[in-house]
Amino acid sequence: MRNLFAHKEDNMSITDEKILYREIDNNTELLRIFSICGDIILPENIDNKKLIGIGAYAFAGEDSWNRVCKKYNDVIACGESSYPAICTNELTSIALPSSIEYISDYAFYNCRNLREISLFGGVQNIGGGTFMNCGKLSEITLRTNRNEHTCLNKLLSELTKKQYLTIIFTDTNEKAVMLMPEYFEESIENGPARIFEHFTRGSGFRYRQCVSNGLMNFAEYDSCFKFAMIDENEEICSEIAILRLMYPTELSTEAKSTYIAYLSENISIVLNRKIKNGNYDAVVFLCETIKPDEDILENTILTARNKQKTEILGYLMNIKNEHFGKSRRRRFEL
What we know:
This protein is of the alpha/beta class and 334 residues long. It contains eleven helices and 18 strands. A seven-stranded mixed sheet has the order 1-4-8-10-12-13-14. β13 and β14 form a beta hairpin. α8 runs antiparallel to α9 and α9 packs parallel to α11. The radius of gyration is 24 Å and the shape is globular.
């Protein structure tokens, strides 16, 4: 990501980017950014005044933003830039500072290439339609205190696609990483009765209900797994299980056993997929947690060799040699 005003590292001058803002009670609200880079890290202060909010339609298209901006008579420019505004397709990731308290309506409307957002628990207000049409937003990082009420309810209610949610508890140094599956809603007409029946498909809606007053209920999240095994495919279920085991914040013994049992049943498929994706950490974790047998190890070694994943291949070879010896046991058929 690119930190606005952090120019010493990249040899860019202040004329390379501009921020439009307005003052609110001696603080500032971001209205627009003009820059060359769509990966943005916002500063905590603009012109020595604390940045507390993101304005309505701040990263939306020009037409939408211009209509809103007309009502402001106190717009201030910080810096200069010949580059266009970072909006819609230009914005790819954004990190909000701890000073941000609110995000106004439709702030990221139609940001179709926005993949990642990072924010703090101090964000207490998220306006309507903030992430409308942000279909690629798949990574959310929230930094907060253990018992701090956050905007997580509103944040997740705006998003129906699959997301990876990372919660970092700054006061306890704990970290939780969870997968929120996709869901969608549909209405089907019942002709004879002349009514519409409403259906929700996918376990993602149920998972998003595990947040109360901005606090994640980890036990409730884990209890949703029995429904995920019905509604979701093996890849989604395995990812849920792996992440909860790797980052076991408030993970009960019962839930841990359930996740391990599921991964054990699908270990060959899961390991091969992680090898193909080059996910070294996940491969190591799975081998240490599930302890695959010799046949499965032979198969995964072949996959790593064929996919030229040399680091993973070396690890798997060491595991096989350590547990089963260097030579593959001979098989004889009569």
